[in-house]
Design goal:
Length: 435
């Protein structure tokens, strides 16, 4: 069975026993009056975001993208977005929807798309029970930049982790119960996740019904989750996460994910596809610290056991360069086309390798400058020492308007994660108006 599986099952049984020991204790109830509120809500934001990319013309991904075009030092892009969300409540029923419409104009032309990010019906037949059906985001996990246990969520963008994400279609049921004693709250979330040709088809390629569950415990002021995903679409996976405030200003959190029989496919330098199957074990450890002067620090270490090894990434870059040289000598794009297909898959993820360190520091209203928050973020690939550095300035002094100026600078040697990206830097200005 293996040590980690045995540990997971043992902890689950332990917390089940702890819960049963207090299940018959006096229930913790709150006698509070209902707060009057409107049965509907409408809101959202409109956004303008011009940006410029400084290109790394020596990188493998630049050659892959621009091999048949005139060499560029910079490219410019204009983005617009309109996000709308609304809800309507009647009795025990609530309907919620969130859409996102994007517009982009760049060197390749104009594109526009509208996505239903979330849209579901929620029923609450009892105070402790809620049932949702439709498209939704679960937001499982305690990490800020990454969530290895978020088996049914689309991955975050570590450069902007707070962006809203598109969900999946599913049926969920949430049961919550409160107690007196060391165990203050227990909740159980069950999920039915269908995967067919016309529903959730981007998650996997088979047509199956899947099951997921999350057991939550607030025990001794520590948030703890046990997570399970199983079904035919992907192999069974287990998760565990926690979060606890050590002091008023210091919080620690972590996640651990076990994936049974994970198959990783990769290429050699000649373009031959290889694969290996193993039990993948990923984890994240992090902390968040708030100083008395309202400076916030977030530090996370992410071990992604499903990612590529350093040598595998070097082979991938070597294959791109081989395809580029073949194009220059013969005009053939066959190898480059194959490399582009690989890049749209696992190789094209923001952080495709195994060991990353994330550090973000922000200061609210330094030097008594009201509504102003500067921040800087570092993402480092520990294996190859390449780094992404992102300074930003945020101003919110105008009602409902947020202005953000942000840059991302990539540094790394040849065959490194950030050193072989198509961009050397990016600068963007975001104006977002909330309504």
């Amino acid at each position: 069975m293996g040590f980690y599986k045995l540990l997971f099952m043992s902890l689950t049984v332990l917390f089940g026993l702890l819960m049963s020991s207090v299940i018959f204790a006096e229930e913790y109830t709150i006698d509070s009056s209902e707060i009057d509120k409107k049965p509907y809500h409408l809101g959202g934001y409109a956004e303008l975001r011009p940006l410029t990319f400084g290109l790394n013309k020596d990188s493998a991904l630049y050659k892959l993208k621009f091999y048949n075009q005139k060499k560029h030092d910079n490219i410019y892009e204009f983005n617009g977005a309109l996000q709308l969300e609304g809800s309507l409540e009647y009795g025990m029923a609530r309907v919620y929807a969130r859409t996102n419409t994007t517009y982009q104009k760049g060197y390749l032309g104009e594109t526009q798309a509208t996505t239903l990010q979330e849209g579901y019906l929620s029923l609450k037949p009892a105070a402790s029970l809620k049932i949702d059906a439709g498209k939704k985001t679960l937001n499982w996990g305690k990490g800020y930049a990454w969530n290895p246990v978020a088996f049914l969520d689309r991955p975050k963008d570590p450069d902007d982790p707070e962006l809203s994400r598109e969900g999946y279609y599913m049926l969920t049921a949430d049961y919550v119960k409160s107690f007196q004693g060391p165990l203050k709250t227990f909740s159980l979330t069950t999920v039915l996740y269908p995967e067919y040709e016309y529903i959730n088809s981007t998650y996997a390629t088979s047509s199956r019904m899947n099951f997921a569950g999350k057991a939550y415990f607030l025990l001794y002021d520590t948030d703890i989750d046990f997570i399970l995903f199983t079904g035919g679409s992907k192999t069974t996976r287990y998760g565990f996460d926690f979060s606890r405030n050590i002091t008023t200003n210091l919080e620690v959190h972590g996640e651990f994910a076990w994936i049974d029989h994970f198959t990783r496919k990769f290429t050699d330098s000649s373009g031959n596809m290889l694969q290996t199957t193993y039990n993948a074990k990923s984890f994240l450890l992090g902390l968040r610290y708030l100083t008395e002067k309202e400076a916030t620090y977030i530090l996370e270490y992410y071990r992604n056991d499903t990612g590529f090894k350093t040598g595998e990434m070097k082979d991938y870059y070597a294959f791109i360069n081989r395809g580029y040289n073949s194009y220059l000598s013969s005009g053939s794009t066959m190898l480059l086309n194959k490399a582009a297909t690989l890049t749209t898959g696992s190789y094209g993820k923001p952080n495709p390798m195994r060991d990353y360190l994330y550090l973000r520091a922000s200061q609210k209203e330094p030097f008594d400058i009201l509504y102003f928050t500067p921040a800087i973020t570092f993402i480092t690939n520990i294996s190859d020492k390449s780094t992404s550095i992102s300074p930003e300035l945020v101003y919110t002094g105008i009602t409902n308007l947020e202005l953000r100026l942000k840059a991302i600078f990539l540094a790394g040697g040849r065959n490194s994660d950030f050193g072989e990206k198509q961009n050397a830097y990016k600068v963007e200005l975001r104006a977002r108006y909330y309504f």
